[in-house]
Design brief:
The chain is an all-alpha fold. It has one domain. It has 7 helices and 2 strands.
Length: about 170
């Protein structure tokens, strides 16, 4: 990269930027390893259950693990989906529905994580792509991806609640 520019000052700035990037990459890798080691010691079973889902790697597993905490605090899968922002929020009182006035209720990090997992799950997975096409016959592509993220969220809830690893056959037929 540095050979692309003749000016010595530009070359020096490029060297400095590349050294900073290398330093940050090393530090981030070190921090990720430390957190992963702590997570495996703290809650290794849930970590390994989460990583059994295709598309959930180190970072997404850690995100879910630490944003959810104890899965037992959610009485139902609907409570978990609501907390994870996987369903549209509603405010109800005395049987009347009021909406949320634009408020975003729930955990934004989990919404992001389940959206990422949906995209990663589709990558190179023909069965998952066929399932998404089936959903797209009823709704737009964006809504189909949101529906897939919601289904993944429900699956993760039951995986953690029942301490079971991912079963793709059951996931795609259910």
């Amino acid at each position: 990269m540095r050979n692309c520019f003749d000016d010595a000052f530009v070359q020096r700035n490029i060297d400095l930027d590349l050294n900073i990037i290398a330093f940050y990459r090393h530090e981030l890798s070190s921090i990720e390893c430390f957190i992963e080691k702590h997570a495996k010691h703290h809650n290794g079973r849930d970590y390994h259950i989460l990583t059994s889902f295709p598309g959930i790697g180190r970072i997404l597993a850690l995100t879910i693990l630490y944003e959810v905490g104890d899965i037992g605090r959610f009485n139902t899968v609907q409570d978990f989906a609501s907390y994870s922002r996987l369903i549209k929020c509603k405010a109800e009182s005395a049987g009347k529905s009021y909406g949320t006035q634009g408020n975003k209720i729930g955990n934004a990090h989990l919404k992001w994580a389940f959206g990422e997992i949906a995209v990663l799950y589709l990558r190179g997975n023909d069965k998952a792509k066929a399932y998404l096409l089936k959903l797209q016959k009823r709704m737009s592509k964006a809504k189909a991806l949101s529906a897939l993220a919601h289904k993944i969220g429900r699956c993760v809830y039951y995986m953690l609640k029942n301490q079971k690893v991912f079963d793709e056959k059951r996931f795609l037929t259910g």
